Amino acid sequence: MNIHYTTQFKKDYKRLKKQNKDLLKLRTVIDKLSSAKLLEPIYRDHPLSGNWKNHRDCHIQPDWILIYRISAEDLYPQSRHL
Fold first, then answer.
1. What is the value of pTM for the model shown?
2. What are the record keywords, sorted (predicted)?
3. Domain extent for 21
4. At a CB cut-off of 8 Å and minimum separation 6, what does 23 contact?
5. 57-73: buried (b, 16+ CB within 10 Å) or exposed (e) per residue?
6. For 35-75, how does the pLDDT look when each residue is reduced to its tens digit (9 = 90+)?
7. Domain count of the chain?
8. How do strand 46-47 and strand 74-81 relate by DSSP bridges?
9. Going by fewer Cβ within 10 Å, which terminus of the chain is more open, N or C?
10. CATH number of the domain to which 21 belongs
């Protein structure tokens, strides 16, 4: 599966790196998603609604959410840190 990082993801990634977040956790989730593996229940993966209808989100940590979209062969991660 091809991974296409959004501009927002790239900005969030830089900010997370400066905050010394454990980026291995993020990499692990993205690797699982890109290989079409199911995430463990601890990540609370679920679909979004409204304007985010075609997107999903999962909780890497309680205050760290990964919003993403999967199409046929592509993954579009859009990280969010609250």
1. 0.86
2. Toxin-antitoxin system
3. 2-81
4. 13, 16, 17
5. bbbbeeebbbbbbbeee
6. 988 899 999 999 999 999 999 999 999 889 999 999 888 88
7. 1
8. unpaired
9. C
10. 3.30.2310.20
